[in-house]
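Example with several molecule types.
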Amino acid sequence: MDSDVVSQPVRDPYGVLGLDRQASEAEIKRAYFQLVRQFPPEREPEKFRDIRTAYEQLRDAESRARIALFLVQLPPPLPNRRRPSYDLSVHTDDLRTLAMELVRMPMQHDFREPEMPSERVGRR
Amino acid sequence: MAKKHRQKAIRARQRAQQQRHRPAQRVQEAAAALRSGDAARALALATGALAAANDSSTSAAARHVVIEAHFRAAAAAMDPRTRLHHLDAALQRAPEEARLRYHRAITLWALGRIPEAVPELQWLEAQPVCRPGVAFLYQLACAATGQPWSDQALSAAEAQTIQMLQAAVQETHTTALRKPTEPVALLGDHPELWHTLLHMKDQPKAAPVAQLQTLAERRGPAGGSAVVSYYLGVVALRAGDVQTAQSAWRLAAEAGMATPWFVENRLNLLRAQAHALGQEGHWDELIGLLQAHRVTETPDPVLSEILAVAHAHLGYTAAQAHDWSTAVRHWQEAATRSGRRQLFQNLALAEEALGRWRSAAEAWREMVRRRPRKPTHPDALTEAQIAALWRHVAECYEHEEEVTEVLACLKNAAKYAPEDLEVRVKIADVSRQVGRDEAAEHELERLLALNAEYVPALVRLGALYEERGDRDAMSIWRRVLAIEPQHTEAREALAQLYVKKVQEEHPRYGWLDRVRRRSEKEKVALLQEGLRELPDHPALLLELGELYRAMRKPKDACAYFTQAWEAAPQKASVVAAAIHSLLHTGGGDIVKRLVPTARAMPGLLAMFWVDVGRSALHCQLGQEWTELFWAEALALAAQGRHSDTTAYALVQICEAANSEQAPDVAARYEARLRAEYPRSGGVEFIEAYHAAGGRRDVSRALRLLRQAQHIARQANEHGIAELAEQIAAVLQAPPRGLFDLLAPAGGRRGRRLLDKVLDELEEEDWHGF
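Resulting structure tokens for the full complex:
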């Protein structure tokens, strides 16, 4: 399954900071500082770099809008469901059709064996 | 004899083939297909036979089969419209055939087109042999269309059924008809069916599910009735039983129910069911359900949207598992049903993940195209975002080397971000790649009109002027240095232009050229001017040294060479040139003094000293110098930096000595290689060198190079292994003409490349391989 993967799309900075896509600026900042405390650069340099990159991508509205273009987007919600309105009345047209159905002859009863050309005719 | 048999067999085969193509034979095959239930094949064969028939009997038989095939295709059709189409086609060939007109009338009725059925039924009733039920159907159709009807030829049940239906149409209360005490004879074996339906009509909330279910399950006409199945679904829904409604309406559809209220009700039910599955996250089941109902064939905007959402979800799940192929498949499906730009964004990202850059670029373009245009729309893209997207699309096309597309996308990006100088520089770069130098120049000039101090644009314009040679590149480089005094490329380019001015003293023709030739003094003045502009630039110092050497002023020359060396002691090319020029000018003592500083160059490889030694050997500057430099090479190699090893350095020295036609020197180092490093792959490499160079035995050389690679890898002699691999590749490559190599680059770019290659060929002094 993974063999056909050549490159990976941009790493989701929201995922790195443990946020959802609607997170506010304050929430982003709070998540960043929490993670930095948890993964300080001197102990976890790689993890810190990831966190820093994610924060840089989300810290201002412009870069956030730009990075949004290169992130896999969440699937859309189902369209709003309207309460189905069924027509559950009895239609007189249907009653007539029923009358027709009660007397009609099925098509299968009218199948016929096709007439074949005589053997002589086909030959030269 | 054998030939005769063969010809006989061929003739027999041809006869059989002709036989197969005879109309009569095709009619037989069509009839067989009809018997086996393949009406479509029968129709195709019989239609062909009818067109090709050349006798009346075959033609009549073919016509019979065509009619029958249409009739059976009509019987097999679930959709009444398809049935009608086949019956009409059959009637064109047999307009007087009663069964066709009868079933046409029935089908028109099922489609709600009763007025059209009336003349057919009238015609049928007027026939000498009337079909059972035709009289009733005709009178019923007359009553249904508001025409006078008569009960003369009808049974009591038939007449009372019509009366009952008339009453129902006129909204008369039908309770009297349903009184068990005074039963009224009605059509069919089960009059309770009528009573149940009439009761449902009068009582819109009544839900006699069990009664109708029993009637629907009974054998007889009512059992297979589309109307009964439909009303079973209706009562089930009245009772809130969705499952029963679904299965009953499926049967009604199969029986040919096609009334607008049925279609609408069924669609509503399907939407509700699909929605419920979606809310539970059962996306696969949802897709299966909609596929089973052929939603893909009958487009409904709501179901289409639900289906798109299902595919979008499955694509997202696959993407999270990095299964990009599956993600692409689902997102493509979703994209066919929904115009949301996010779907195309995801699709583009997935295509990129799979390395399919052209498809990715197309998906990105589609995303841009489908963006909402109203700036107030929550999904609208800003101009900066659109520009960023076009730049990205250009990058996708760059992967595919589709330069024209790259250029078009960059121009789009510039349209949305005219102030983005980086994009415009890129446009100039790509324009040059496609040979549009003038367009590049104009773009750069327009860009500099916006920002005269934009260094990347100045650098490109300088390079462009320099290559074309018809504009003043020096002034451009000076502009760069005025903004960034230490700009390496500008300093180097300006210095090289000074050197070029001094060197452009090729033999010229005519007295004017001789007059224009610069004197030595003027050249020195020019270089001094350069040095004032670029103090201590090694290229200018080296050139000045060369000038003084030519003027037979070795002392001054050595001073400039030394100054160049000291100005760039870390730059290998300058140090090598300074050493070489000093040796030419008798500055051996200075070289000896400065060699320790050369040793201190960071990242220096043995190859540096090998090349300095090779140059000394080439110019016959004294074998002791060659020996000294190669001793430096071996000492450096012994330190084992990067892929340097003593064996590798010895191989390089042997190759250098051989190529400089110094077999004695080469033999000495070869002997050392054989004695000290017999299992390094170096010995085999040198033997391959001799095989290819001296004896011209390429196959032996290749064999030895393979051995050299194998042994070198085992001995961790990566340098030798790589060198052997590279040489083997060169020997194995098919010979390519120079113009083949230059073919992809036409125009001015091609000419430039050709000049460059010819210059290199002139400089190349490769006698070996």
